[in-house]
Specification:
Elements lengths: L1 E5 L3 H13 L5 E3 L13 E6 L2 H4 L9 E7 L4 H10 L3 E4 L4 H20 L22 E4 L5 E4 L12 H11 L4 H10 L5 H8 L3 H15 L4 H10 L4
Parallel strand pairs: 1-2, 1-3, 3-4, 4-5
Antiparallel strand pairs: 6-7
Helix pairs in contact: 3-9, 6-8, 7-8, 8-9
Length: 237
């Protein structure tokens, strides 16, 4: 599986590539202006720094590929926009580097298994029945008011899947959420503030904020943007 790092910042691009090499993962650094070979048939993984200059690349990637976005700061609107554009996942750099390495190794292991079976990602022999693929389980869109709409169907067909184990792990964490906490997380994914959520649910704002804090602890997230990311990628919202 070929891995590429795309970033406008040459220092960060080089650091990402070097950090991956220390974990035994070979990646090729690219500038956003570098041409991407769309004729390749083997699986490819693109690690793309989430920037205005790079987000458009998500719509131009080859079918046999997946893309992970990363950013210095994870913000709710950026996470949803990147997932809408076709990103398979979103990571904070460098805080989530260990998780990123784990995800890459999962894909490499899956690639090796499929190669041994004589099939590749997207091959009908490998995936004869349509299913939610981990990278594109749902299509999301932003409303004019900044809310989030989630549509339950793949946004890109015939793409390299993300291992089901990752979504399962996230669902296991989400299982710790109470019914009320899950409601708060779902409403937060629609861009609602604590006050708006309180009015919607008929509870006090302080109660909503307490639920938010509990969600962060249970999902091991630093902020609600990360928690919503876990919810979307874990297929619970």
């Amino acid at each position: 599986m070929n891995i590429f790092v795309i970033d406008t910042d040459w220092k960060r691009r080089g650091l990402m590539t070097f950090s991956l090499s220390k974990d035994g993962i070979t990646a090729v650094p690219l500038e956003p202006s570098d041409a991407i070979d769309t004729s390749r048939t083997e699986p490819q993984l693109f690690l793309i720094c989430d920037q205005p200059e790079t987000r458009a690349l998500l719509a131009t990637l080859p079918p046999q590929s997946a893309a992970f976005c990363y950013a210095d700061e994870v913000q709710l609107r950026n996470v949803v926009t990147a997932l809408q554009a076709g990103a398979a996942d979103y990571f904070a750099w460098p805080d989530d580097f260990g998780e990123l390495v784990e995800r890459i190794r999962e894909l490499q292991a899956l690639d090796r298994r499929e190669a041994a079976n004589g099939s590749t990602f997207g091959d009908p022999r490998w995936n004869p029945e349509p299913r939610r693929m981990g990278g594109y389980p749902r299509q999301t869109s932003l409303t004019a008011s900044g809310g989030v709409v989630v549509v339950d169907h793949p946004s890109r067909p015939n793409v390299m899947p993300v291992p089901e184990a990752t979504a399962t792990t996230r669902r296991q964490r989400a299982n710790d959420l109470s019914a009320r906490e899950l409601e708060v997380l779902q409403l937060a994914s629609h861009g609602l503030s604590s006050q708006s959520i309180a009015e919607r649910l008929g509870i006090r704002r302080k109660t909503v904020e307490a639920h938010r804090n509990s969600i962060l602890i249970k999902t091991r997230s630093n902020n609600m943007a990360e928690a919503v990311r876990w919810g979307i990628m874990g297929r619970i919202i």
